[in-house]
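Residues determine shape. Take a concrete instance:
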Amino acid sequence: MLFNSIEFLIFLPIIFVIYWSLVNKSLKFQNGLLFIASYFFYACWDWRFLFLLMFSTLLDYFTGLKMQNAGNLKIKRIWFWLSIIINLGFLGVFKYYNFFAESFTGLFTQIGWKSSPILIHVILPLGISFYTFHGLSYVIDVYKGKIKAEKNFVDYALFVSFFPLLVAGPIERATHLLPQIKHKRVFNYDKAVDGLRQILWGLFKKIVIADNCAEFANQIFNNSADMNSSSLVLGAIFFTFQIYGDFSGYSDIALGTARLFGIDLLRNFAFPYFSRDFAEFWRRWHISLSSWFKDYLYIPLGGSKGRKWMRIRNTFIIFIVSGFWHGANWTFVVWGLLNAIFIMPSIIMGTHRNNMEIVSKGRQWPTLHEFLQIIITFGLTVFAWIFFRAENITHAYHYIYGIFSESPLELPAFEEKKKAIVTLALIVIFMLIEWKGRENQYAIEKLGLHWKKPIRYAMYYAIIIAIFWFGGNVQQFIYFQF
């Protein structure tokens, strides 16, 4: 069930009405309904993988209890590592087994050893990377004594499977979400309306920006050998806005939907394309994943303590692991490596915390220096996204070679150029709105709140009309594959 589908448009109001009219007087029934709704939501994709989700949930639930009741540290560690190994084992088998089997086979073939790898032919369970990391953070936090083990199974299962975040995040922490699940929610009109606004903006990002950009990004990347330099540059730019509109749009819909039920999820995006350096970019892009790796990998490795070479080593490790988390392909590893290289100057010079506030806070426009910083950071981001989108390393190499081997002044040549111009115009309008609202949680959070009601509602209807009028062909969310 996609957020931008008719099925979800029917599903959400039904659950919302039942939640606030029939079960609103009991926390037990509130959580029970959301738990059932979440499993139904997941089953609409493939009911067979419900058993894997349930197994992972049961494993971490009982692991938490066993660690808390362990008589000594040795037994506690045994349960901890058992959960870690099984969780990562399932993730490794489903997501990475074929990749490693084929990679080692290719390596052995090059040195003269012939082998035929045994591959598994099974689709990747939807959201496995996300709900596995939900469980791992819980187990680690219980092990370190940051939280107590949750005794109520339904409450814990809801933390793992809450349907707005189940398949593509944000990656929640038990310390943040479980306390909200444990307390009865009371309907708040302003909070619900704010949630609807964020859902509306998320749908605009996905349907108008991402889905339109996807048509041209796919056309150009899939036929890159026949494209001239300027077309290839445009293809990379279209994908840059596709992945932002797609993933941040999903996150906006997820956060807005959760708010309809009285729950606040972790913010996942904070206008990353306005970043002035890569350290700022990664504080603003996929925030829940970046903070997860910081807390559970970077800091345990030593973080920023110790000598500078250790900080450099730790930075490369988390970016390579982050790249590999996204998918079983060397392109993702190179993408992570590039981002590590791009962020390295600020790490070496100690300027990685210079840009903590949003750019031009309290001002209408950026200074020339800030504008140049944004352009450079954005340009390098576009370059790195080529590897993220390419089918393989060879494809990425030929794509980049095509950009620099021909004249960039030649006009782009691909189908439906008039529609592409309209899409570029929509991107410009979209980014201007994003710029205007960059100091808020999402771009239209406060836009029009002080206007007269008819004008404010005219704006909402204009966005809805734009979604139906300019919406591209329906595309699956990119991060569903991760």
The mean pLDDT is 91.
